[in-house]
Amino acid sequence: MWQKLYLLILASTLSLVPLLAQHSYTPADVEDGGRLFRNTCTLCHGPDGNFIPGVDLGHGIFKRVVTDADIVNVIRTGIPGTPMPPNNFNEFQASIIVAYLRSMAADKVRPGALVGDGARGKAWYQTKSDCATCHRVKGVGSRQAPDLTEIGAIRRATELERSLLDPDAEVLAGSRPFQATTRAGVTVTGTLLNQDAFSVQLLDADGRLASFPKSDLRAYGFVAKSPMPSYREKLKPQELADLVSYLSSLKGLDAP
Ligand code: HEC
Ligand code: HEC
């Protein structure tokens, strides 16, 4: 990583060739770039990068930037006089975001990909699945796992598919459940709200606040594996496409 950073700095000082053309990024770099993108950019640009009129980050459609180096610059310094904010990323971090943006176009079109039917996916979710025993959509279901009401506004179809097939692939900050076991042997699982030297506070599956003095606990910590099962064996390809299409349509309470 330091070596790469050094090379990047060298490349940009010499500025002989476009920045990214010099380097190949590992799949792990691109994944990291995707994570930075999801955490910082999707709120305005959308999970596919096309929410802002005239700008489609995943398809290289821009109003002013031309080269990858321009994009790195815009990411770091923002565009004054517009809502595009400056970001506190170093050159390498900004570059892997760009590498991720370049990879988006490639994984969007998969030959032979099935077209999902959102209405069928919704029916499956509501009548045949066990999703609501952990998740909540528009006020219906459990609070044990992340609320999915807006999941379509923050995740791309490929990411949703990966969550369903391989839930352990990415630990999503803030969404891993926390577990506390009392000396009496009672285990409570929920979302960690706060912990300090002496106590732990959780929001349990029913949305109740549970507070424990650490001295009363036998064990506590984030659970190691995602409690979410993989649906690889449980969903036929068409059912998976339908479910992803339904989840992609979940864009908040006001959305239909
Ligand atoms: C607060 C909202 C907001 C956030 C967060 C944000 N952007 Fe932007 N971005 C904008 C807006 C609005 C524009 C269009 C500015 C204009 O009018 O040209 C823009 C423009 C851009 C452009 C230039 C496109 C062009 O046409 O030349 C790039 C590239 C870009 N954003 C990338 C990113 C990336 C990558 C992130 C995350 C690190 C990010 N943006 C975060 C709002 C945002
Ligand atoms: C046993 C509980 C459980 C069940 C059942 C379950 N999930 Fe999950 N799911 C979780 C947890 C917990 C997470 C948080 C991810 C982690 O643990 O890393 C999660 C994560 C997700 C994510 C990713 C959320 C994000 O922020 O990107 C999606 C999408 C999702 N689940 C959809 C579903 C769907 C659809 C079903 C039913 C087919 C389902 N889940 C069934 C517990 C569950």
Layout of helices and strands, plus pairs?
Elements (H helix, E strand, L loop, with lengths): L1 H13 L12 H14 L1 H4 L22 H10 L13 H18 L9 H10 L8 E2 L2 E2 L9 H4 L2 H9 L12 E5 L4 E9 L3 E6 L4 E5 L3 E6 L14 H12 L8
Antiparallel strand pairs: 1-2, 3-4, 3-7, 4-5, 5-6
Helix pairs in contact: 2-5, 4-5, 6-9, 8-9
This protein binds heme C (2 copies).
Which small compounds were modeled alongside the protein? heme C
- Under CATH at level 1, the class of the largest domain stands as Mainly Alpha
The total count of strands amounts to: 7
- Strand fraction equals 5-15%
Secondary-structure element pattern, one letter each: HHHHHHEEHHEEEEEH
Report strand order across the widest sheet: 6-5-4-3-7
CATH topology of the largest domain: Cytochrome Bc1 Complex, Chain D, domain 2
> Strand pairing plus helix content: what structural class?
alpha+beta
Q: Specify Rg, calculated over alpha carbons.
A: 21 Å
Q: What kind of sheet is the major sheet?
A: 5 strands, antiparallel
What is the name of the CATH architecture of the largest domain? Answer: Orthogonal Bundle
Question: Are there runs of 5+ residues with pLDDT below 50, and where?
Answer: 1-21
What is the overall pLDDT average?
84
- The number of domains is 3
